[in-house]
Amino acid sequence: MFFKNQADLYNAFPYNNLIRVDDTTKITTISNDFTYGFYLRGKSLKNEAKVELGFQNDLIWYADSVLSKFYQNSMVKGAIGYKFSDRVDVNFIANQIVVGRNMGDFLYEAHADVHLSDVLGKLRIGAYSQNKSPEMIIRKCQSCLSFLERGRPKLGEDQDSKSILSICKQ
Questions:
Q1: Residue 125 has pLDDT above 80, yes or no
Q2: Cβ burial 145-158 (10 Å sphere, 16+ → b, else e)
């Protein structure tokens, strides 16, 4: 907890004229993940393919001293792997958010494992592509900064503290 003990001459606290500021952020997340996986094997046990399909639903409650919101993201997940022998393994993984606040975010990943020897171990070669939304704190700061750059009037002139709050909550 932070207590101001002098006047805010430079409007450092744009939300209201607060005397007491609760500097607390609370994030609660509940995830439901359903995955189905199976193997496809030939008659020889050396080659096998593994397929995994899944769906993940995230429920997110966000609260701080100014804002309280609920968000939800739904993601489809998939993985395909093929084992050529006990020495070579290739895997492809895809995660895509299809519904929710972060719709369009994805992570596509591929890697190959090559077992060199018992002494040297295995060599992993991989690559990925990712599209990720900015973190919540960055979005919040950007909306407040753009508001400040437009030239914020002093409280009580053209806008009251509730309208300032509504602009910074975007």
A1: yes
A2: eeeeeeebeeeeee
What does pTM read for this prediction?
Answer: 0.66
Instruction: Kindly state the tokens that stand for 98.
Output: 């299809």
Residue 126: CB atoms within 10 A of its CB come to 11
Other Cβ atoms less than 10 A from the Cβ of 83: the count is: 19
Residue at 40: amino acid letter:
L
Nearest to 168 by CA among 138, 136, 142, 133: 142
Reported confidence tier of residue 2, pLDDT bands at 50, 70, 90: very low
Q: What residue has token string 């919040």?
A: 140
87-101, 124-138, 151-165: least confident range: 151-165
Q: Is the dihedral of CA 160, 161, 167, 170 positive or negative?
A: negative
Can you tell me whether residue 147 is helix, strand or coil?
helix
Angle CA(129)–CA(60)–CA(104) in degrees, nearest 5? Answer: 30
Task: Please count the residues of the chain.
Answer: 170
- How far is 61 from 141, CA to CA, in rounded Å? 19
pLDDT digits (tens, 9 = 90+) for 16-25: 555 555 567 8
CA separation, residue 110 to residues 41, 82, 107 (Å): 21, 12, 10
Number of Cβ within a 10 Å radius of residue 168: 19
